[in-house]
Every structure is written in C-alpha cells, then in structure tokens.
Amino acid sequence: MGLQFPQGFLWGGSVAANQLEGAYQEEGKGLSIQDVLPHGVKTPPTDAPTKDNLKLIGIDFYHRYKEDIKLFAEMGFKTFRTSIAWSRIFPKGDEAEPNEKGLQFYDRLFEECLKYGIEPMVTLSHYETPLHLTREYNGWANRKLVEFYTHFAKTVFTRYKDKVKYWLTFNEINSILEHPFMSGGIVTPKEKLSLQDLYQAIHHELVASAAAVQIGHEINPDFKIGCMVLSLPTYPLTPHPDDVIQAMHTDHQNTFFLEVHARGKYPGYMKRFFQENGIQLDFEPGDEETLAHTVDFISFSYYMSICETANSENQPKSEGNLFGGVSNPHLPSSEWGWQIDPKGLRYILNLFQDRYQKPLFIVENGLGAADQLTPNERGELTVEDDYRIDYLRAHLLQVAEAIADGVEVMGYLVWGCIDLVSNSTAEMKKRYGLIYVDRHDDGSGTLERYRKNSFHWYRKVIGTNGQCLLEGEN
What span, in angstroms and rounded, lies between the C-alpha atoms of 95 and 110? Predict the structure, then answer.
C-alpha cells in the first residue's frame, strides 16, 4: 500500500497568543511575563513594558483574526492551535472572577474557526504567566500557582466546552530546565535557583497539569487533553559507551515530563537523580492520586536534534530551540544555527510510540528564515521560500515513514503558520510563516498579509491529504 497519511489526519498551523495578538492591555488584559521580555529569553526582564517590545503589538491578530482565519481556511486547515492569554482572562492571575471581555474575545475567535470547519486546539499556558504571579509569588516555585492555574483551567474549560475539543496543558513544559522565568515565571535567577527549588516548581506544574486533565474530563468527557514537550532527539556523538550513557542522561532529563504525564508517576531514574542531588520533593496529600490522571495524547515541538558526549571540551556547541548540545558534524544548520534533521522526526515519533503507546501529535515544526518580500512574475508581492517548502517536505515525508512504521500520528501543525514575533529572539526578521506580515524589527510596516509560495504548496498538501508529497508532485 506504500506511504500514506490516514483519513482524518489533522493538518494545520500553530501560534501563541503572546507572539501575535498584540493588544497587550486592551479590554482589561493584565501584563504577562512576555511584556517585560523585549529582547527574547536570553536577556533579563525589564521593570515595565518598553516601546521596543514587538510583542506589545505583535501582528495585531487581536483585531485582524477574521482576516487571518480566512487565510487559514483557504489553505484548508483542519486544526488551528493557539493559546489563551492567561492574563487576558485573569489580569493578575489570582482573582476570583474572570475578565468577561477577555472571555468574549476567545468566544469570537473560536466561533470564527468553527465557521470554516477548523478545530481549535488551545494551549492553556504558553509562556504567558501573569506578571503579578511572578512578582508576588515567584511563579511556579510557589504551590499557590496550582490553585490559580486550575481555577483558570476550570473557567475556560467550562466557557468553551462546546467550542474546543483539543487542549494542551503547558507549552514545552520541559523548557523550565533552561529558562525558569519564561517557562515557570520564576524570578530567582537561574544561576541562583537551587535544584531543590527548580524541581519543586516542576512538581507543582506536573500536579497542576494532571489536575487540569481531571477537571477537563469531568466538564466534558469528550475533551482530548494532551501534554506538550520540546522534543530533542539526543544522539551519542560517538559509539563510545560513555557517550551513549551521556546521551541517555540528557534524554531522561527531557522525557521524564512525558513519563509523569503518560504513566502517572515519577520514573526510577528521576528518583535516583533526586536522591543523588539531595532533592526531597514536597508531595502534598492527594498529589500521587492527582498525577494518576494521565493525558489522552502526547504532543511535541520538533525542530532539531542534538549530540551529547562525555567529553564535551573543545566540541562545537549547537544552537537551538532553548536547549543546546554538541553539534552534529553530519547535519546542516539554519541561519540561526539550528541543525536540520528530518530523520530525527521519524526517530522521535517511533521512540515516543514505543515508550508510551499514546497517540502522538506534532504541534510545532517549521523553519525560521529571513524572508524577502518580492514581486512574482504576475507582479504580486510574495516570498519565494522554496527553502521552507524543502524543509517542510523533508519532515513530512519522515512523518509518513513513521506512520508506515506503525506510529499513531494524529496530525501535523506548522509552527508560526503566519509570521509572528520570535519567542527566542523577540525579532520579526526570523520568520516561520506561510503568510508574510509586513512588520519589521524597527516596528515599521503596514501589517498587511501576503501569501508566500509555501502557502500555495501547503494548500495542495492538505487538499490531497499529503498524497502529492508521496507521489512527488510538488
């Protein structure tokens, strides 16, 4: 029968509220951590929002969402993943009553998706912790955030129970290991944050995530609720056993989050890690029972793989999606130094299937590049982004290979399906979209939208359920 994508495969695209909505204080919205990160995740937060923070306006999706959803529908999207800005619903994060105007915005957004037959997929927390919760409580280092988060989750689950079927609890939850402020709202600088406090914060997130799964299923048993991690296939740099063990340790640090979400308990290797590092997690009564509420599916981002070695001295480091590693000498890199490894996607799909026997959903994959808007032969402004088409094609062919291997893949979402502000660098010039947005790093631009070559290519891919890829027609 050969390679094929299953009927009902959920094609679409993925974004985050903080990277495209803008309207950062309109209609009662409070500040989030993103409003004080004007230069990306590797710089300290500012005291207050500054004019050079492109995310304050984003691409003005808050006011232009109807135009953008129509373009997604033109491409044939089956699914559109976005996040709910927590501080749009609870401006400070710890209020008892939600902001009705914030709730109404997402009512309109989800209704617009459904009008075109597009299933919304909603991330509850996508690097958007309300700023008040970080400054008043030190973010997820404080147990109180479990209460605030579950109140938020219950509020939106109840409000949108008939509009949203697919939910994710946290975006790239394992990123807290490298970026505790962005991912966990923790004000304590990383270099001063003890392992005890870091893993206690992680425990709070895992309990909150499992509690959200429980609450969501009680509100609507038909909800499909997943976790989401930053996937990072980790290869040993050489066949030396020490390199293999080092790669295993790195893999464990990243995938133990999946173990807890999928199996409902901490794995043995993490218990050993806690013991050897003097970490004693504070389990409150009921935590073990809460963690037993496992997810319906596993979702993940995939951009690159890394290598690890027991002797990393003088080895070239790889840049990457929040995590680094040792550079793989056999792989090319993007303009931003992210190594390109389509076969790593097939590998990680098989790995997760073998380990967890849960349905899998690729909710982020894409190429950041410095696109140039130019007229085509018909005089229409577009982007000749064949490099992006080549990247996406190569990865989708590996998804098809994984499906042929027997992996249950629910769908595939292109990250940043419309140009948005980069999370890692907070710049516009690093573009992922299939739709070009006329906005630039200096804040200039008309915000007009233009279809890139990849827009038309992806439309054909979806329209043929991937068959054109497999038959080499594009």
Answer: 24
Q: Which residues contact 469 (CB under 8 A, 6 or more apart)?
A: 393, 396, 397, 400, 461
The mean per-residue pLDDT over the stretch 115-141 comes to 98
Share of the chain above pLDDT 70, in %: 98
Instruction: Please report how the helices 268-276 and 241-263 are oriented relative to each other, as an axis angle in degrees rounded to 10.
Output: 110
Q: Is the dihedral of CA 436, 437, 441, 445 positive or negative?
A: positive
Q: How far apart are CA 367 and CA 458, in angstroms?
A: 14
100-115 and 61-75 helices, crossing angle to 10° = 20
Q: Are 303 and 365 in contact (CB under 8 A)?
A: yes
Round to whole Å and give the CA distance between 447 and 240: 52
Structure tokens at 408: 């249950």
Question: Which pLDDT band holds residue 291 (cuts at 50, 70, 90)?
Answer: very high
Burial label for 96, CB within 10 Å (0-12, 13-18, 19+), is exposed
Q: Is the whole model's pTM more than 0.85, yes or no? A: yes
Q: Which of 21, 147, 364, 448 is catalytic?
A: 364
* Pairing assessment for the beta strands 297-301 and 360-364 based on DSSP bridges: parallel
Nearest to residue 452, comparing CAs of 391, 364, 361?
391
Q: Give, in order, the Cα–Cα distances in Å from 62 to each of 7, 102, 105, 451.
A: 33, 11, 8, 20
Distance CA 107, CA 435 (A): 24
Instruction: Write out pLDDT tens, residues 89-99.
Output: 999 999 999 99
Confidence at residue 472, expressed as pLDDT on a 0 to 100 scale: 73
C-alpha dihedral sign at 462, 466, 471, 474: positive
Which runs of consecutive H residues, i.e. helices, occur in 11-60? Answer: 17-20
* Cα distances (Å, whole numbers) of residue 352 to 94, 233, 250, 345, 431: 36, 11, 16, 11, 29
Q: What count of other Cβ atoms lies within 10 Å of the Cβ of residue 357?
A: 10
Structure tokens at 171: 């975006």
Q: Which two tokens stand for residue 94?
A: 């710890």
Q: What is the CATH number of domain 10-40+48-363?
A: 3.20.20.80
| Per-residue pLDDT at 321 exceeds 70 | no
43-47, 232-236, 256-260: range with lowest mean pLDDT? 43-47
Rg, C-alpha atoms of the chain: 21
d(CA 321, CA 324): 7
Based on the residue annotation, tell me whether 364 is a catalytic residue of this protein. yes
pLDDT in the model for residue 334: 87
Q: Name the E strands within 31-118.
A: 79-83
Number of CB atoms found within 10 A of residue 378's CB:
6
Strand, coil or helix: 319: strand
